[in-house]
TrEMBL record:
The protein, known as: M3 family oligoendopeptidase
Lineage of the organism: Bacteria, Pseudomonadati, Pseudomonadota, Alphaproteobacteria, Acetobacterales
One Pfam family this sequence matches: Peptidase_M3
Cofactor binding: number and manner: Binds 1 zinc ion.
Cofactor: Zn(2+)
Amino acid sequence: MIPEFISLTIPRPTEAGLSDGFRAVVTLLDAGNLQASLKRFDRERRLFDSWAALVYLRFSQDTASETNKAERDYADRLGPKATALEVAIKKRLLALPEREKLIAIIGSHVVQLWESDITTFDERIETALEEESRLCSEYTMLLASARITVAGQTVNLSGLAPWLENADRTVRHEAEQVRWAFFAEHGETLDALYARLVSLRTGMARTLGFERYTPLGYRRMRRVDYEPEQVARFRDEVLTHVTPLVAKLLEKRRQEMGWDHLRYWDESFIDPKGNPKPAGDYDLLIGRAQTMFDRMPGEIGLFFAEMVKNGYLDLKNRDGKAGGGFCTAFPSVKMPFIFANFNGTHGDISVFTHEMGHAYQNWRSRELPVIDELWPTMEAAEIDSMGLEFLTWPHMELMVEDGAADRFRRMHLISSLSFLPYGVCVDHFQHEIYARPEMSPEERHATWRKLEQLYMPWRDYGDIAYPAKGGRWQAQGHIYKSPFYYIDYTLALCCAMQLWLRSRKDEPAAMKAYETLCAQGGSMPFTTLVAQADLVSPFIPGALADVVREASVVLGATD
């Protein structure tokens, strides 16, 4: 029986209680009962992860609440202690002579993940981990505090979106001006926050025996089947194949619109008729989403009905709420939760279907035996989210304003292609930063601007000084809060767009492959999951060629 979210309670752990719970795992292990020990270990981790997910979700729902902030601070302090206990047990289990028996119970991939995990923690970095969490929360609160006035209305950063896409070019310009005025006002604070985070992470890496943070960052992301060199080759593929196509599409748009120059505030205005809007208000969209999912194969309609019935959604924008969208989950009750900020733009649909893809995968994987399998590593998880964005295309007449479904599909395809150069730019920037952690704020901004000009040579900020000097990256929360978690979106998009290609020829086959991928959860590493789905790995040269070719034809951008 799924509890209603509003009544969901998960016991608040204490350090002593955690120690007792994990000591029980060791007692069972010492008694020679490996199966029972592993089961208890999994239970303890599910309970703690569920509690932590609830704490950080409630903080995101209301960053101004002193109660939520205090509980988040408590979770920040307790998290490293839970990790220490967990790593100690993983080390004990991995040191067992009966390795084959361990693999038989939890699987070779989970063993591989644990072997990586134990290299990412030591009690000597507990204080640094707590400080890292505190600084990330400080970044979240700072951006959530923004109050921006545009066209006589005061909104937060998420609420600014309709003006950023307004059909009136002067309104878009004004919206970008006030947006970046906020970042300019807080630029020194944002620079100092990031400098502290980079220093902390570099220090943790060196304490753990790494020369720099990058290899530790990859291990914290649980990447066990590829290295930075393969990622760099993929960035080159995007630069070679996608950047020229996006440049061509933007030039075509400039000519169609009669603009003398393409400015930054023009890039998000994709449709000459105005970017398609959602079909209606929140209640209408939720009802139509239910119809859409009911029409699709599999159990996604049943699952969405459970989410709505039991309140596992928070999609409306409001003051004090953290920006962005995400999916979290409570493994002890086997339910995920979707968090977003609807603002009346087409982004509401894209973010919703994206996060719904994450939620559906987690739900489909809920009965897998080990907590480590409930989520794939993030680049694989993003195939599930981005894949659903494309697989809902046939039903877009339900979700967008009348007569705009084809325009929405075209806009989504252009947005996806345009995202790839930006996504690899974010990744390249982080590799440069952690290779030279001693960079000054000015050098970091210059590095961003240089890479931006490489991957997005069309980008022109006009008279908006702050991003023109290289400050655009400070609006990308992943750079602060989840280092090296951004290339995941681009790797996944390479695969999700292959599902799009397949769905154009055989929609049922594409949906079947998607369902299977979701159900496999994190039982295999990224490249194996991709191969199992009969998709081309992003690390194979030419992986983007078919997608770019088909997109060029669909968008009328062939030579």
